[in-house]
Design goal:
heterodimer; A: mainly alpha; 10 helices; 78% helix; globular; B: alpha/beta; four-stranded parallel beta sheet; 22 helices; 8 strands; 52% helix
Chain lengths: 215, 446
């Protein structure tokens, strides 16, 4: 079971992620041609300017209006993206398989970052329940998705501290991680792929067409 | 669907129209719009939205309705587009009625929420898809549909006939000449620098604005003209009712009229949506990337006249004023700085609103809402309490509103919330403050 998870499963997940993402992006670009007003007004200068104002904390008014949420959201997303790539145990696996390696996070920092992801996810879940505005637009799938995003981090921490049976936890960790990766292109986690595009398009509509700003 | 006070409103344009509909007709219109007419934007916006709800802060309706979850931008999409897609258009006429109410009367297409969504999702575009579906099915608030019918039949918004149009211009020219003997409204002058276009409510109910512009143009020495034919109206309510075929016809005629008169540019009166229709939505529907001739909005025009010294100010107004940033000319055209230049040039006692510039709250009248007419007025007032609070905080007695929708909508808000202010156009204040050169005063016309 471990060998299966360690081997084919991970590669299948990566393949689904890469090919799925490529498929989504290409089909979007094609559809954008049918949606005749997208490409003629797309400009990457104003687009990048808009992206910049929305990936730098507090660079947009809405972020300044809700400081706690902004800080949590940025930390959550940053840790979510970086921790899996820079954790020692993960890089070791890459080295074993492909002989490549890169800079890694100190273990303590990795753990802290995983905790941040879990805390962030739990807060988002709580917000979905407690905030009436968000609750009104939340469906069960939104909750499941957050739990799924959180799962590899929770099991990763458990593996680190060897809670329960190490082997079982590691296998669950790998499966949840693989499912998470494979689901990116096909669920609302796809916002990760589409963010630069929707933001850039709106940035161009505001910045290029109208000469204004959208932050 | 949830009950709101608005569900008691009687609007034959919606209530009677849904009685004639079958579920099959609804489904076919939904499928036409959501699968044939829209493509990447609809799909990507729906897949990207993570339902975080932070767009709520962007919406004056939500803020005014005590943060009622039903009125956040994403909630309006949930109750309309998501529902239509989830059920493949299989919704009952009763449900469509609720969707029409949300799309036409609770969203002003001001696009403020697009600046509050982290992904830049154009929520008002999604709402416009719902209006498009409703329009194809003939489910449109009666007053709004009447303006669209008027556009279709007369090419202007208010059933103004050609003889009435010409007569109104001549009447206003004479009125202007009482004040300023040299004043003219030159009709059909081919090759003039400027074609001046207005929205149909000007000749219909605010004719003095035409007399005012006659005096302003004369003082500034502008070589200008107005068409005597259809095509003089730059307004476009079909754009907001969802009848894009009519929208395209109206905009094409407006541009073709300018081309026929061989003018260098169009200058338009103080209206916001007319700019949007003429420069953005109209050309896109017609397949033009940009309009064929430059279009200058009144704010910019007055800015240029004042900054170049073509119009001089005799004495600034001493009244305490504030200014409304209209969505289509400040968020939609970046005229915020020029607007303040004009206000500072005309008024000595100016207090800005908070928030302002592109973050200003919508008037809740534009986007076709005020055109939905008296049945929806109370709802419109309740949906803009936040504007009343914003106005009150300035302590001003005059609200300068360089947009017809803002002008009427804010006057309504002032009355409903008893704020004791009044709205004025820039041209109203310009008329009070501009210096009339001595050589123009004396003569008795050209």
């Amino acid at each position: 079971m471990y060998e299966l998870s360690r081997g084919p499963l991970v590669w299948i997940a990566f393949a689904i992620f890469f090919f799925g993402s490529a498929y989504r992006m290409i089909s979007m670009a094609r559809m954008a041609r049918k949606d005749k007003v997208v490409w003629p007004y797309m400009r990457w200068g104003p687009g990048l300017r808009s992206i910049l104002h929305w990936i730098v904390p507090f660079a947009s008014r809405n972020m300044r209006l809700r400081p706690a949420f902004t800080i949590l959201s940025f930390l959550f997303h940053l840790c979510l993206l970086l921790t899996p790539i820079l954790t020692v145990a993960h890089v070791m696996l890459w080295k074993e398989s492909w002989g490549v390696s890169w800079w890694t996070l100190p273990d303590t920092l990795s753990k802290v970052m995983a905790v941040i992801v879990i805390v962030g996810a739990l807060t988002f879940l709580l917000r979905r329940i407690a905030n009436p505005t968000v609750r009104f637009v939340t469906s069960a799938s939104d909750m499941v998705l957050v739990v799924l995003v959180m799962a590899p981090f929770a099991t990763g921490l458990m593996a680190f501290y060897q809670v329960f049976d190490y082997q079982t936890i590691v296998i669950i960790h790998m499966w949840t991680g693989a499912i998470w990766l494979a689901m990116i292109p096909f669920t609302r986690i796809a916002h990760m792929l589409f963010f630069p595009v929707t933001r850039a398009y709106m940035g161009a509509e505001f910045g290029f067409v109208r000469g204004t700003k959208d932050w | 669907m949830n009950e709101t006070p608005e569900s008691q409103v009687v609007d034959p344009g919606i209530d009677e129209a849904i009685e004639r509909l079958t579920p099959e007709q609804i489904q076919s219109a939904v499928q036409r719009v959501l699968t044939k007419e829209s493509a990447a934007r609809l799909k990507v916006y729906l897949d990207t939205c993570v339902r975080c709800g932070v767009c709520a802060e962007g919406c004056h309706t939500y803020l005014s309705r005590n943060k009622d979850p039903l009125f956040s931008p994403v909630a309006k999409v949930k109750q309309t587009v998501w529902e239509l897609i989830k059920r493949d258009g299989k919704v009952s006429p009763e449900e469509l009625k609720e969707m029409a109410r949300i799309a036409y009367t609770e969203c002003g297409a001001c696009r403020r929420c697009a600046m509050y969504c982290p992904f830049g999702i154009d929520i008002s575009y999604l709402i416009m898809q719902v209006r498009r579906i409703c329009s194809l099915l003939g489910v449109v608030p009666l007053y709004l549909q009447d303006t669209t019918n008027s556009h279709a039949a007369t090419m202007n918004q208010m059933w103004v006939q050609q003889d009435e149009w010409i007569d109104t211009l001549q009447w206003q020219e004479e009125d202007a000449q009482l004040e300023l003997p040299a004043a003219r409204i030159p009709l059909e002058k081919e090759g003039a620098d400027v074609m001046y276009s207005v929205i149909a409510p000007e000749p219909k109910i605010l004719a003095q604005l035409l007399g005012n512009i006659s005096q302003i143009m004369t003082v500034a020495g502008i070589d200008w003209t107005m068409p005597a034919t259809d095509g003089w109206d730059n307004s476009n309510m079909a754009m907001y009712s969802g009848d894009f075929e009519i929208m395209g016809r109206v905009e094409r005629l407006h541009w073709e009229t300018a081309a026929r008169l061989k003018v260098k540019k169009i200058v338009m009166g103080e209206c916001g949506h007319a700019y949007r229709g003429a420069v953005y939505d109209g050309p896109r529907w017609l397949g033009w990337q940009f309009p064929p001739i430059p279009m200058v909005h009144a704010i910019e025009f007055y800015h240029d006249l004042l900054s170049s010294g073509r119009i001089k100010i005799k004495q600034k107004s001493t009244k305490h004023v504030t200014v409304q940033d209209p969505c289509n000319t400040v968020r939609g055209l970046n005229l915020g700085e020029k607007l303040r230049y004009v206000v500072d040039a005309l008024c000595e006692n100016f207090t800005d609103m908070t928030p302002n510039f592109e973050h200003n709250y919508c008037c809740a009248a534009g986007g076709g809402i005020i055109n939905c007419g008296p049945p929806w007025k109370r709802s419109r007032m309740l949906s803009n309490k936040v504007k009343a609070q914003q106005l009150e905080a300035t302590g001003a007695e005059i609200v300068i509103t360089p947009c017809h929708n803002c002008h009427s909508g804010i006057e309504d808000i002032i009355g409903f919330y008893d704020l004791g202010m009044h709205t004025k156009f820039i041209s109203d204040i310009l008329m009070e403050t501009m210096e009339i050169p001595a050589e123009l005063k004396g003569s008795s016309g050209e």
